[in-house]
Amino acid sequence: MSGHFETRAFDAAGRIGELTVPRAGVTVETPALLPVVNPHIETVDPAELYATFGAELLITNSYILHQSDDLRDQVLSDGLHALLDFPGAIMTDSGSFQLAEYGEIDVTTEEILQFQHDIGSDIGTPVDIPTPPDASREQAAEELRTTQERIELAKRVRGGLNDEMLITAPVQGSTYLDLREEAARHADASGLDVFPIGAVVPLLNAYRYADVADIIAATKRGLGDDAPVHLFGAGHPMMLALAVALGCDLFDSAAYAIYARDDRYLTVRGTEHLSELSYFPCSCPVCTDYTPEELGTMDEDAREELLARHNLHVTFAELRRVKQAIRSGDLLELVDMRARGHPKLLDGYRTLLDHTELLERSDPVSKDTVFHVSADCARRPEVRRHHDRLERLSVAGDVLLSEGGPNEAYTETWRVVPPFGPFPRALSDTYPLTVETPERLDRESYESAAVGVRALVTANPNASFALAHYEWPDSALAKLPDRVAVSRLG
Ligand code: GUN
Ligand code: ZN
User: Fold this and answer.
1) 415-444 tens-digit pLDDT
2) In the CATH scheme, what is the homologous superfamily, with its name and number, of domain 5-359?
3) Is 126 in the pocket of ligand 1 (CB under 6 A)?
4) For residue 282, which ligand has an atom nearest its CA?
5) Which residue out of 232, 251, 258 has the highest number of ligand 1 atoms within 8 Å of its CB and is therefore the one to mutate?
6) 3-class state of residue 465 by DSSP
7) Beta bridge partners of 17
8) What are 178-222's pLDDT values in tens digits?
9) Does residue 97's CB lie within 6 angstroms of at least one atom of ligand 1?
């Protein structure tokens, strides 16, 4: 690990971090979103991306510059920062996208990395092979080998560059999770600096968020906890919370500009077409100055720029909200809320909750109270952790587990709170048992509480147990061990 990245605050697998970019002389707070700037089409001036939108990093494509008759010499003599007029740090891509699109490109990894260095890039990228989703396993494995050879080449190039330009080690492997994990292990061992997860754009475009979540989780298994992870080509505001909660630190997106070109308007719930909007659900400067109708009748270039500006505002606002959620410890509540924007995003969230091992690695053991806002919250890491703890708690005598008050006829009365299950009364004020639940609780939470009861009962074969409950559904009662005496309260 090269030591350019430090993590500060955590929630779920998400973290606030600091990426030091030595060549630019800056330290950037993550999660960060890098707007994609096409040097030929600057929809919004890079200087403004920095000043108005707060973008401290951007990404541009070195291959486009390398192939450009009018910009190549200029960027070589003046440098990338002057060409784009951008005071922050600049990351460059390599032409891998063009390779995937057209089958071949005109440069080698050494040439394009040297070029990225010569034009003053702060973070360079080798020519990885973005194997598409659902490719054959042979293709995925073979192309991964090529990507790995290029990562080895990049290491050698980096050795000759005095370490100033950071270099990425992209993780490929298509939809094969074992290949992704192996690719991540290899990338991590390379000692390179930033770890982009590649070839997810087709999955994102198809709303395959469950597959994206599995790929991120597999990649994270192979990377160290202190590896900065970039999700290549991702930056739609609807999925930022999910991707951050899975442990991604950097995003780049051309969506703000590409979508604006065909009148698409980004929101945290999805993408809308301008022609279908009667109102703007946003308070950015664009949406407060204009109505959808006014934008619709404007000339095309002006409309495109204004839509791109809105798209950037909404995306950066969501990024700030996600970062605040990490600080406040309610990132999973935000992910839960965002997941309601699209059924496939809900699949992504449910897949995240499958990855207990990932969430357990970094989720803080204490934060403010949990808000139980959906049935899915019954599968949160806090609940699983409590169930694991119940397997180790010992209790003796006649034990009443009660949703009501204590009862002197028993040796001990423990409280029972869905979705957690039983706990000693003395723990009532400790996180996460201070959970706030709705009065009309979901079936899943009762079932989860029953799983907790079962864990405690199984761990204490010599104690006897009674449960006093108000309105547990049959499906939850059916999960209790037979030796629990069940009674209903008032
Ligand atoms: N941009 C979006 N996806 C990719 C990828 O897989 N590799 C590279 N180099 N750039 C990308
Ligand atoms: Zn707006």
Assistant:
1) 999 999 999 999 999 999 999 999 999 999
2) Queuine tRNA-ribosyltransferase-like (3.20.20.105)
3) no
4) 2
5) 232
6) strand
7) 7, 30
8) 999 999 999 999 999 999 999 999 999 999 999 999 999 999 999
9) yes
